[in-house]
Amino acid sequence: VLYCVAFHPDYANNRHMYLASQVPRANGLNLVRVSRFTIPRDLAHAVDGSQEESIIEGESEGREGGAIVFGQDGMRYVTTGDGTGDSDDWLAAQDVTRLQGSVLRIDVDHPAEGQPYSIPPDNPFLNLEGARGEIWAIGLRNPWRMTMDQRTGQIWVGVGGQDLWEWVNLLHRGENYGWSIYEGSHAFYLNRQRGPGEIVPPTIEHSHAEFISLTGGVVYYGDELPELNGVYVYGDYMTGAIWGARHDGDQLVENRELARSTLNIVDFATTPSGQLLVLDYAGSIHRLVKTPPRSQPHEFPQRLSETGIYTSVKDHQLQPGLIPYEVNAPAWTDGAVVERYLGLPGEEQITVSGGDQWEVPDGTVLVQTLSLPEPGSATGAMRRVETRLLTRQQKLWAGYAYRWNDQQTDAALVADGGGEVRLDSAQDPGDDASGKPIWKIPGRIDCMSCHSRVAGFALGLSKAQLDRDVECLDGTRNQLEWFHELGVFTSDANVETDNKTPRLVNPYDDREPLEARVRSYLHVNCSVCHQMAGGGNSRIDLRITNKPEDMQLISVHPQHATF
User: Fold this and answer.
1) How do beta strands 469-472 and 475-478 pair?
2) Which tens digit of pLDDT belongs to each residue from 290-333?
3) Strands (E), 394-434
4) How far is CA 550 from CA 370, 532, 533, 534, in A?
5) Cβ-contact 87, 94 below 8 angstroms
6) Using alpha carbons only, what angle is made at residue 559 by residues 556 and 561, rounded to the nearest 5 degrees?
């Protein structure tokens, strides 16, 4: 596996090219190696593998780094990951006796006798007993891409996190970036031995509601996108989002989303003519360009009545194309009653294969309205509190919440960070200063922290949730069969109503078996995080598709502490 190619700043004269690569070995560990090749002038576009010269190498079983940058000081900087697949099992990132989990700084132009490099005399741990003198900074999990600002000399390191956070560090001498005591700026294993140096928080940090796997970028300079001059442009491998950050040398002064894409972004580059390139894992190269001006700029609906979902918001009459649906296992909503609707654009349909592999078309919207009992009502009347929309746009999911007014005639879009409703009945345990209970409305990030990629985004759209009987105009019907008749699914959709896929049950229905109720509750409310790569570091896997013995929940020693 080839991770990085870097040319010596004086390549025109010395013809030195450096590669960072991974070489599998029979013992199950990989050898991560940085090599040098001297390219003959008559082989300008070829590399002779027999001429490889190993500069520095180390063992790994995952999270390997492998970025190379030449600094303005003439030194070569190399990233190394913590070397393990999960939670820094080797405890390497805080251990300066090992090269893993660090940024190394070596001098390849003035090698020590018998060595392919020397250690610069100003490296921070050179005189620390037992420490590897090559280390420049420590505390990194999986540094994925490193770049130098060609004008300021600042070096940026993008870091892939594990459970909940992705981050970027501006590199400085002797700094400790915290892993695996911290994940970004957040506590991870506070009881682990801390390495030397003060722990420095990230320069940029994203939760997994925004980023899933951060790909470090480049600092742009060019005439094609002058407004981005001096901006560090980076992205996310999983979501395809591209962001830009501006740093004034002392602090971050700007950071915003620049574009959304469907790419699996693995790297960024710039051309001499000032083009900003984005590399996709599938093998394609794309340019980042300005969005053409719109003749009629679109304004996002600020009120529920502007969304087109309702024929009458006041009377709560939805468009006839919206399909009501019910789920087997409703998520915990603090006592609220939930109404659910599915809207598909035009004649579009859902493609289903393999039971729970659902491909939903762009333009789909899922609607949830949450209501609480009207205070003091003798008739059991309900008051609408919020309506949530989960929408699919340009192959990406996004969540929005609208807060209902006191008159129950409309609802206003809640800000990015969410909102609150002060209630007159004690439906929620949190109280404000006046003693009234508070209902918390989720923000955009809160929505997507549960409606995540690993959880499948649209949590209710699954056979396990929808395979149930519902009341229709012509009597009781199986909901999946009814959806088929309505044309929700393509004609070849494979949604069987059998027992091959575990069926969820209502956790609050005491007629159901107790274990099924518990498993359903944990699946719906907890497994969105607590599954493989879901962000739950306790290692329990609470999906109902697991056998009980595979959940790592019963008779298993806790991952973090015994309390």
Assistant:
1) antiparallel
2) 988 876 667 889 999 999 999 999 999 999 999 999 999 999 99
3) 396-404, 411-413, 419-422
4) 35, 12, 16, 16
5) no
6) 105
